[in-house]
Amino acid sequence: MRIAVFHPGAMGSQLAAQLVAAGHEVRWVPDGRSQASVERAEAAGLIGTTFADAIATADAVLCSCAPQGAVDVARLVGEAGFAGIYIEANPLSPKSLQAAQDALPDATFVDAGVVGPPPTGGPSPTHLMLSGPAAAAAADLWAETAVTPMVVGDTVGAASAAKSAYALYNKGKAALAVLAFQLAEKHGVTDALTAQQVRADAGSLKDPGLPDALRSVAWRWGPEFDELGETLDAAGLEGDAARALRKVWSRLDE
User: Which residues does the UniProt record annotate as the domain Pyrroline-5-carboxylate reductase catalytic N-terminal (predicted)?
Assistant: First the structure.
């Protein structure tokens, strides 16, 4: 099958590499992308082409980018008349997910969410949550690869909800750890804080360098927490909790 991927970042390039390993022909659009993206795409075995060619020849499109760009990608692909399977693999709120789906009237829309690290064969599995009428067909694309597809429902939105629930816990915990280290540093008690790593629930407190280590992803995790806030609001839950934690990523990204 021919697949177009937008855009091969740290996660998208590895998802695409597994598609190549499964025997699919995967294309991407290098125009306007960084040298780092070019290197990732080449390492993954992707074929560089124009946007028009990528869409015209694709049976399926995988969109895996920062959440703030997902709806724009969907609109561009929809305006090109794409009518294949569109796999939306970004952490989106119900509102943003609906906007992406509405932008693709001719496509078969699959909701997706990635939980875990990029699929490189490590000990932690990469779960690709999938939902929608064509979720099973999308799952088959990654058969016998380092990606573990999980069909979580036949309704668009189920996969995003599963991804959002885990991201809220996992990245929310990271945000709290960042705040804890910053508070400890202000009072000169970082050693006392890291000493608590011996406790079963304190694994995030092992490395006082965590705030600096997370600066490189803050630009992407911040908008994800915007989406999480809207997702919680839509469920009648406390969206302000996610919006408060979003400020942690905003500060790291300054």
Answer: 3-77
